[in-house]
């Protein structure tokens, strides 16, 4: 057996390329959300590994028969759930190359290209996003790194802030350390804080409101911190978000950083979803104020056409950042590390081993070019805006949060559901039922959130293959299901529109 | 622009398959260890991303010209450094499929196949490794999960042990928690403990010695714990290793678990490298006693023909394990999760997002079959044993640690170097110089360790393409370079052999 026989590698590799190309060609034929029941796979699968080799032909048949029905098709053009994961050719080729080389780039010496291409790509992205020079690897103190996920960025930056503080005030104060976020901050933040040993009660959430677009209020933050200090807590970290998961809300970075700086806190800006949009000049202003932050991250695997998982993180003070993550061992000792002239990325992440992720981002940035990437973002924003327009045309529906990017939060209004015009509870149940009916058709997939006690349907544009016609079809499907549920005909003329339903301040970009 | 145009996907995909097949065909032509100097890539690369798309042909040319020279060729048959990362066709195809689908399998509902195939594959592996049923997902309390790296396994299990204890004794005791390992435990363990908030001084290392094959002594552990308890510490966790990184030493699991159980400690067994070997019945005894452990992990990406990164972890008490890692949010709330009938793997790892890793392991186990996988392991062990035999035939060299698996630790003996027969310091410098000369030829790549103050060269067999001839060539290269350095001819007959150089207890399997 030679598991890397080039002849077989070639033959089987070509087969899988064709298999996947066929998959993309047929993807609209599958129900977007998998319709299998729990345990479906165990019924058709042997309960131990085979003794003898099986041919690729048989395995691919089983992928078609057993795996594809169990997949929710994130690459379907009718996928509008969560935030999309944008598979595409260039990133796929990058994954092929990095898997082909399969180098373990824990430090510069283990594969110099892995480290240097990562530095290069992070510099390219820094310029694309117009991030401050203080975050650049070419600056004295800053630098960028590719992690897997935002959770890793949370863990590593929280750890840096924690250790930096404890070094100054003594380890016995651990229980007093407090970190800040809003009730719209991603739910993984709480878990990340727990991982690094922040007392769960000391993860302090500022409450947001719909009237202020679910933004984290600097005034409320300041008040909360003041009270906490009086209560003996030590504020060390603030997580601000550009593009929250529930409604894509944008926290005011500039003023938040000003508040945090009064208390010498680390500020992390989580732009997991919306960061990608900021490569377009017209969206860049959402990052204004980031120069006051200590770190910034976004997920290229969400909206910058990069395969899972790829989180781009920059820090301003690499010394504080890498100190608690650094390791030394004779096993990987080498003269280049000792020279101090190179970056060893093992000291920038939780794990030692790391994949050659930069290759896929490099392929994406080169294959598409900046102009096409911007057009790609704009196309998605335009489709979301169009969807928002359609919602506004139907008086039974209402937009539930200001739309900034490519996601629309909406619901059937309580007014359309019953006489109890302001009964959010009833509306919540109705909209949940509506969403279930819509998804059960298999023709689209959307998900929901609950903000300020209100159940909202999230329509998140972002799948690579989505076109105008899919957006239109999705809306008609929602309308049709709503009509069935409400038992009234679909309003089909603009005369039914109640302009007041357009939320104040929705941007037209 | 359609970044998932099936026609272009097919055309470019086929090109990259051919590119990589050519790479494997030519891999022996490249210097194994990259010979570039720091900063090499920045000289040839533009300092910002291109505005316009570039054709795949131009990009692949740059991969050949700029990336390949900067890669250390982990897939070269002449790669004997660290522990190998075993690229291969089946796992590569699995990566293609998982990247093609690009699902984000954080919970069952987000893509049922991702969760169910992971459970299935972990059950297959559990049986292959004859792990106790108490680790099985089909048991009441246990379960298996695919993580990226052993560091993640450390962090998650340490967190479980810590939180379980603090729930019982109160959070204010955090500073008293102590965790145990040996001086041969992987250096990432210390960092993982720091991440979860274990006081660095409370990561307690038992010293090992060459005379006991660098094993963690249960008696020494017991004594250390007793003293620590007297000093007010609270022991919560022991990391035992099967196949340490420096010498592939094997800790005595059974007696270590007995000691740990006296103190109600969590025992994690780290078999990152050697776990794969235990699919062969003749090596399975190295895991004897694992039934007393709380968790067990090994890296399929090291020696089980699986692409980076893939760490397989089983735990006996999934409730303690998942409690601190669990998250809930309306954003991902769904009826299947609420039913309690499914596993949501987001609660088994640090991050929320996760790749469909099970696909590649499933491809490997099916494509090769158990019998061929065992043969593959045995072939590597046989090559290492042959290398060990060659070392033993040359009286200038000595084996420095008992060989258990596919790695040989050796050096030029102080006796061969100078009159100062027991001068380890001089021998260390000599062997370091020898290794540098050997690697500088570009024809092979080996790395080193320092154990008990002694510099040893590690010859780790594990690359997928390695054959007998590569092992023989590597040895002749080492001999030749040693001869140049020593200024004496290579002994070429068995009459020079000093049988005493064969280390006591080296196994013949």
General description of the model:
The structure is a homodimer of 509-residue chains. With 509 residues, chain A is of the alpha/beta class. The first copy, chain A, has 2 domains: 110-355, 3-Layer(aba) Sandwich (Aspartate Aminotransferase, domain 2), CATH 3.40.640.10; 367-501, Aspartate Aminotransferase, domain 1 (Alpha-Beta Complex). Helices cover 41% and strands 12% of the residues of chain A. Chain A contains 16 helices and 12 strands. Chain A has helices at residues 6-26, 40-44, 56-67, 89-101, 112-128, 150-169, 188-195, 218-230, 253-262, 300-303, 318-322, 335-339, 358-393, 414-417, 424-440, 468-486, and strands at 79-80, 143-147, 177-182, 203-206, 234-241, 266-270, 295-299, 311-315, 397-399, 407-412, 445-451, 454-460. In chain A, the strands form 2 sheets. A 7-stranded mixed β-sheet of chain A has the order 2-8-7-6-5-3-4, sandwiched between helices. A 5-stranded mixed β-sheet of chain A has the order 1-11-12-10-9. In chain A, strand 9 and strand 10 form a beta hairpin. In chain A, helix 5 packs parallel to helix 13. Mean pLDDT of chain A is 94; it is low at 492-509. Chains A, B: The modification N6-(pyridoxal phosphate)lysine is found at residue 302. Chains A, B: One of its GO terms (biological process) is carboxylic acid metabolic process. Chains A, B: One of its GO terms (molecular function) is L-tryptophan decarboxylase activity. Chains A, B: Its cofactor is pyridoxal 5'-phosphate. Chains A, B: This is Tyrosine decarboxylase.
């Amino acid at each position: 057996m030679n598991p890397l026989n080039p002849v077989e590698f070639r033959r089987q590799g070509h087969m899988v390329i064709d298999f996947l190309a066929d998959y993309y060609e047929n993807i609209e034929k599958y129900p977007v959300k998998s319709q299998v029941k729990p345990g479906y796979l165990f019924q058709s699968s042997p309960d131990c590994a085979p003794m003898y080799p099986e041919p690729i032909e048989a395995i691919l048949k089983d992928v078609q028969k057993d795996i594809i029905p169990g997949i929710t098709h994130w690459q379907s053009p009718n996928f509008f759930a969560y935030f999309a994961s944008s598979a595409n050719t260039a990133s796929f080729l990058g994954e092929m190359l990095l898997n082909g080389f399969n180098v373990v780039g824990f430090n510069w010496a283990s594969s110099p290209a892995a480290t240097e291409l990562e530095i290069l790509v992070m510099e390219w992205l820094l310029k694309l996003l117009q991030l401050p020079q203080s975050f650049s690897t070419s600056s004295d103190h800053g630098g960028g790194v590719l992690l897997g996920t935002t959770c890793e960025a949370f863990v590593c930056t929280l750890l840096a802030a924690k250790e930096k503080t404890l070094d100054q005030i003594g380890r016995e104060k651990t229980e007093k350390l407090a970190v800040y976020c809003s009730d719209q901050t991603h739910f993984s933040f709480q878990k990340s804080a727990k991982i690094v040993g922040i007392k769960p009660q000391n993860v302090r959430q500022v409450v947001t409101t719909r009237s202020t677009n679910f933004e984290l209020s600097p005034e409320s933050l300041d008040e909360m911190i003041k009270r906490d200090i009086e209560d003996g807590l030590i504020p060390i970290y603030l997580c601000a978000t550009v593009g929250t998961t529930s409604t894509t809300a944008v926290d005011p970075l500039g003023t938040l950083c000003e508040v945090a700086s009064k208390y010498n806190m680390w500020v992390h800006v989580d732009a997991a979803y919306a960061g990608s949009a900021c490569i377009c000049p017209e969206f860049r202003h959402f990052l204004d104020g980031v120069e006051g932050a200590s770190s910034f991250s976004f997920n290229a695997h969400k909206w910058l056409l990069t395969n899972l998982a790829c989180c781009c993180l920059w820090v301003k003070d690499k010394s504080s950042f890498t100190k608690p993550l650094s390791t030394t061992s004779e096993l990987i000792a080498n003269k280049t590390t000792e020279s101090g002239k190179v970056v060893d990325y093992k000291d920038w992440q939780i794990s030692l081993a790391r994949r050659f992720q930069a290759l896929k981002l490099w392929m994406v940035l080169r294959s598409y070019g900046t102009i096409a990437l911007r057009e790609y973002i704009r196309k998605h924003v335009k489709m979301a805006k169009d969807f928002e327009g359609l919602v506004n045309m139907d008086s039974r529906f209402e937009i539930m949060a200001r739309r900034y990017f490519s996601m629309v939060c909406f619901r059937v209004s309580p007014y359309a559901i019953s006489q109890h015009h302001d009964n959010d509870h009833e509306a919540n149940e109705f909209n949940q039922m509506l969403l279930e009916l819509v998804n059960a058709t298999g023709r689209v997939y959307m998900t929901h959130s609950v903000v300020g006690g209100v159940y909202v349907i999230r329509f998140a544009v972002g799948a690579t293959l989505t076109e105008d016609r899919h957006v239109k079809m999705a809306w008609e499907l929602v309308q049709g299901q709503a009509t069935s549920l409400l038992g009234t005909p679909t309003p089909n003329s603009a005369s039914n529109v109640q302009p007041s339903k357009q939320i104040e301040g929705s941007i037209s970009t």
